[in-house]
């Protein structure tokens, strides 16, 4: 039997980690906070990928590795698969999660976020939410790096709690 941790505990730790880096440790340097949060996610993704692929043969190509991330890896992390995968067949992949668990408890005024017409309170909420997405971007990048794929990962959260992760494979 493997070790288990309550999902609410993981959610709380991640939210607190992002809050600490964004609001306390690097409050005057949001770029540095984002890099630190992404680096932590990278390490987590790298280690989880190692654990989840231990018994598997190496992947033949990028698409096979991305499918592993969408199905098996995402299922282990979030108890569901990615909802949609798109590619341009030239090294760019878009992973769509229509109900990203880490964004379900976030409440923002969607009109204010969309129009960049936010008050300072909702603006700080939008900034904190975007900071929260650096962690899963790091997880994806770390997992793919462990599979031998160098890439850049970014996130888009225009329609909460849906989220898209854009993966650009580096040549």
From TrEMBL:
It holds the Pfam family TRAPP. One of its GO terms (cellular component) is cis-Golgi network. One of its GO terms (biological process) is endoplasmic reticulum to Golgi vesicle-mediated transport. Belongs to the TRAPP small subunits family. BET3 subfamily. This is Trafficking protein particle complex subunit 6B.
């Amino acid at each position: 039997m493997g070790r288990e941790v309550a999902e609410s505990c993981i959610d709380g730790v991640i939210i607190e980690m992002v809050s600490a880096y964004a609001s306390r440790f690097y409050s005057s340097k949001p770029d540095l906070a984002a890099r630190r949060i992404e680096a932590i996610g990278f390490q987590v993704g790298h280690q989880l990928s190692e654990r989840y692929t231990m018994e598997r043969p190496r992947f033949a190509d990028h698409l096979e590795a991305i499918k592993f991330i969408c199905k098996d890896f995402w299922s282990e992390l979030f108890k569901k698969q990615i909802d949609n995968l798109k590619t341009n067949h030239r090294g760019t992949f878009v992973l769509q999660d229509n109900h990203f668990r880490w964004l379900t408890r976030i409440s923002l005024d969607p009109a204010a976020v969309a129009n960049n017409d936010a008050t300072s309170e909702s603006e700080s909420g939008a900034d904190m939410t975007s900071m929260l997405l650096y962690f899963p971007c790091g997880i994806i990048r770390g997992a793919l790096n462990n599979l031998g794929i160098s890439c850049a990962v970014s996130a888009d959260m225009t329609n909460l709690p849906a989220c898209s992760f854009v993966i650009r494979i580096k040549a």
